[in-house]
Amino acid sequence: MNSESPYGRSDDDLLRIAKTVLSEQGFQVESVSGSVDLILAENSYFVVAVAAMNTTRDLILAEPVAFEALAERIGSAALGPKKWDTYLVLLTQEKSAEDDDVTRDLYSINYDTSRLRRIAHTGVDPTPEAVGHALAPFVAPATSATSAAQTDALDSLLRVLITRGVDGQLAQRAITAFEQGASLDDVL
Amino acid sequence: MTFFEPIIDRLRVESFRGFRDAREFDLSAAAVVITGPNGTGKTSFFDALQWGLLGSLERLESLRARRNVEHVVNQYRLGRKASVEIDLSLPSGPVTVRRTGDQGGSTLELRRTGETSLFGDEAEAELRRMLLPHSELTLESALTTSGLMQQDVMRRVLEAKPADRYRQLSTVLGLGALEDFEDAARSVAKQASEREKNARAERARLASALNQAQDRSEAAKARLAARAQVAAVREETLDILAAAPPGISVSRDGLTLEGPEDVRLVATAFGNAVDRVESALTLTRRAAQLRDGLGDAPTEEELTNVQAEVARTESARDAAEAARGVAQGQLNAARLAAADVAKLAALAVPMLSDDCPVCGQRIDRDHVERELRERAEATGTILDLEKTFVDLANDFSRAAAAATAALEVRDSAEQQAERWRHVRSADLAAEAAVSALVAELKVAKFDRYDVKSFVGVADPGLEYFRRARRALLDLLETFDRQSDQGAVERADAEIRSLETALASAEQQLAAESSRSKKLQALSEQTLEARVEVTEGRLRSIQPLVANIFQRLDPHPAFKTVEFELDTYYRKGTTSPLVIDEVENISADPLLIFSTSQANIVALSYFIAMSLSAGDRGLPFLLLDDPVQSMDDVNVLGFADLCRHLRLRRQLIVSTHERRFSSLLERKLAPRDAGSRTKIIRFTGWDRSGPTVEEHFVEAQLLEDPIRLVHLAG
Asked: Phi/psi of residue A185, each to 5°?
């Protein structure tokens, strides 16, 4: 469901997912309605406001509005050192067009570091992975459950060999012999 | 929030690179920020950590080969040993490692409280085991690929050859064993293929040998069927031997033709008889030829007479020659005298008057001269002498002819005598050859051994001996029939043996072929499986690399980084790619990125390697000036990333940019009592070494950590 605002339609799916992602990362999260709907998230290090729009054009139009709304809130709260760690994240599912004006606008949003940091992401799929990716600065980098640390390389090789039709016993004997430092020619 | 417990507690450096005097750093913090202008010793600080742990400085390794360049010991302390001491706080307890040495080498000492110190290789191995307890990586490999990133080796990952990068990546991902296993599988498949080839060659050899044995057996059998019976041929042979011509007798009792050896001996004897008789017959025929038409032999008296005649006629010829010589001399002298007179007359002629004073006739001078000359030469003396000379010359001719005739007679007589000598010599040889036959002929006897008798019986005898020898050879061939039988038996036995061996070789070949096929499949599938496993591993780390890269966000379009995996000549290769997902374009970052952007790719890769290694990796992350040339937004992204990194690793990061150090000091300031952040500021450098200020960052404890959201709520 998308909500209408004078600056375009918010993408409620992305907002919902962003809320979940940030909650799972230990943030306190609150939805804030206004000219532009926001997800407001906070932990001891960051204050993050997330806006999600249907189109890139809406995102560009909504950015100053959301920025002012967030700045106003910061000004009214004694955030202490966190005032330097406040981010406005703008998301849209629409992929960034080849339009140079849009590219320039997005560039100026991302590279304007005055007052508070703004990060604009286009082409964000409505999935926890994609949204988590867009919110990466506030999310701990996750290592895959199947990374090198988790499984023995030769065990993986054995499984793949068997699935590829190699005689299981032969492959097992070969790998066992190799692990024991024996000559494969003697064993196979 | 749980912070990573510091591992490197303290670092003490003396006489090492930029440090002349001893300097100690307290690093007991989850995050340590090293800051200060360039040239104040920050890189020497990281060098000290690297040298202390490894005993080498990768970025300066090229200097090691230069004999006179000391790149380890401080230039004001040349001749002494550099010293780096590191206190480590490990789960197993505190450990201190101390390395001393110079560019020529170093020694590591490892100390634990209450234990005997370890030195050298033992200490190195123990240090590796303590820092990488769950990994097979070498400390050097772990440190250089995911532990310590120095500014000038930062891009080495990107610039490495694809195959080197693949090995580096494989090692960090714990896949080094796969390539070794693949090599082993390929090697054993090759050996199996070689064995199969040998088994195939052995089978072919045995099959060929079997064919040859079968051919031999068939041929022997055919010969056997075509041969006559031995007994009949033997009787025929004995009959032939008994049919000796008149004048020659053969004793049948002495001839044994039982076995092939007996026959061979008798055949040899008859062959010998043929040769001897042929030889004696040749000699007798030669003697007869020499005598044929020769006439009588001159007697000794006749020879003496002809020689005396030769002497006499030669003496007469010599005497006639001498007399002719004397006459020749006299005639020559007379002719010379007459010539002188003629010359005088010729000289006198010009003095004559034109007319004769007596008769008044005209005088013809030429006529007078000619007349005078003729009269001088035709004097009586000269004519007598000429006649004498001619007579004596004729005498000489006759004597010479007589001498020549006498010589011819003598030579003819002597030649006849010589021919007769030859005849007698040939007769003697023929007689000797014939007489020798008594002893030489073992199988037959002539009735008489004189030449005349021999000549009469030799031709039929020769014919007999030849016929007998032929018959004996035929008998021998017949005996070969027996050996054909043996050959058949031998060939059949060989065939049976070869058939057994061939069957065994067929089995061996089938086994080797099956084994080779299986191992070939294993080898080929291992290559594919290794690529699949590596791709899987790479895919598992890929999101992390992309995640880190996106946090730093160096490029407005190319926002994703990946590593493309390929197999080139059975070797894995890895190439980095940055991707513009909107336009679906990918490219090598070294080609399209600026230096700082490419550095961010390398930094993403390095940090991802460290984090993905989990507890198999080193427990610290040392980053020497990672943000040089980065844009502000990249720096901000990196500062936020550092907040996460210090939760996984002890983070020691340096920068020469004051703004970034301030940012890090603020971003990494503890917000609870359980963590510490240390700032080490290199403020300058003098000959004693860096001047350093250190302090722990004051914690920014928040009274109300969640304020804005609560207000919004």
From this structure: -65, -30
Chain B residues with CB inside 8 Å of A33's CB? none
* Nearest alpha-carbon partner for B153 in B131, B168, B135: B168
What's phi and psi for B488, nearest 5 deg? -60, -45
Every domain range in chain B assigned CATH 1.10.287.510: 300-418
Half-sphere exposure of A127 (CA within 13 A, CB side): 5
Cβ–Cβ < 8 Å for B78, B16: no
Query: B172 with B647: CB under 8 angstroms?
Result: no
Phi-psi region of B614 (alpha: psi -120 to 50; beta: other; left: phi over 0): left
Specify the CATH number of the domain B1-163+618-702: 3.40.50.300
Interchain proximity A174–B180, CB inside 8 Å? no
**Amino acid identity at B438:** V
Which is the CATH superfamily of the domain at B300-418? Helix hairpin bin (1.10.287.510)
Assign B35 to helix, strand or coil.
Answer: strand
- Within an 8 Å CB–CB cutoff, is residue B538 touching chain A? no
Nearest to A157 among B173, B178, B672 (CB): B178
Residue ranges, comma separated, of all CATH 3.40.50.300 domains in chain B are 1-163+618-702
> Whole-angstrom Cα distance, residue B484 to residue B461?
35
Give the single-character DSSP code of B362: B
B136 contacts in chain A (CB < 8 Å): none
Torsion of CA B268, B269, B272, B274, to 10 degrees: -100
Distance CA B364, CA B559 (A): 155
Distances (CA, A) of A32 to A29, A88, B708: 10, 13, 11
pTM (2 d.p.): 0.61
Q: What is the ipTM of this complex?
A: 0.82
For the four alpha carbons of A151, A154, A157 and A162, in that order, the dihedral sign comes to negative
pLDDT in tens, A155-183: 889 999 999 888 888 899 999 988 888 88
Question: Where does the pLDDT of residue B531 fall: very low under 50, low under 70, confident under 90, or very high at 90 and above?
Answer: confident
Give the pLDDT score at B596.
Answer: 77
Domain-wise residue ranges, chain A: 2-138, 153-187
Q: Does B531 touch chain A (CB under 8 A)?
A: no
Cβ atoms < 10 Å from Cβ of B347: 10
Report chain B residues whose CB lies below 8 A from the CB of A148: 172-175, 537, 540-541, 612-614, 616
- Closest alpha carbon within chain B to A136: B551
Q: Which residues of A touch B553 (CB under 8 A)?
A: 110
Rounded Cα distance between B660 and B677, Å, is: 15
Q: Classify each residue of B243-280 as buried b or exposed e, where b means 16 or more C-beta atoms within 10 Å of its C-beta.
A: ebeebbebeeeebebeebeebebbbebbbbbbebbeeb
Q: Is B177 on the interface with A (CB under 8 A)?
A: yes
Architecture of the domain spanning A2-138: 3-Layer(aba) Sandwich (3.40)
User: Å from A106 to nearest chain B CA?
Assistant: 9
Q: From B666, which residue of chain A is nearest by alpha-carbon distance?
A: A81
Measured between alpha carbons, how far is B486 from B439 in angstroms, rounded to an integer?
39
Q: Which two tokens stand for residue B413?
A: 């007589």
Q: Tell me if chain A has a CB within 8 Å of the CB of B712.
A: yes
pLDDT, one tens digit per residue, over B190-245 is 999 999 999 999 999 999 999 998 998 888 777 766 666 777 888 888 889 888 99
d(CA B597, CA B642): 18
Determine which helix (DSSP H) or strand (DSSP E) holds B655, and give its type and residue range: strand B650-655
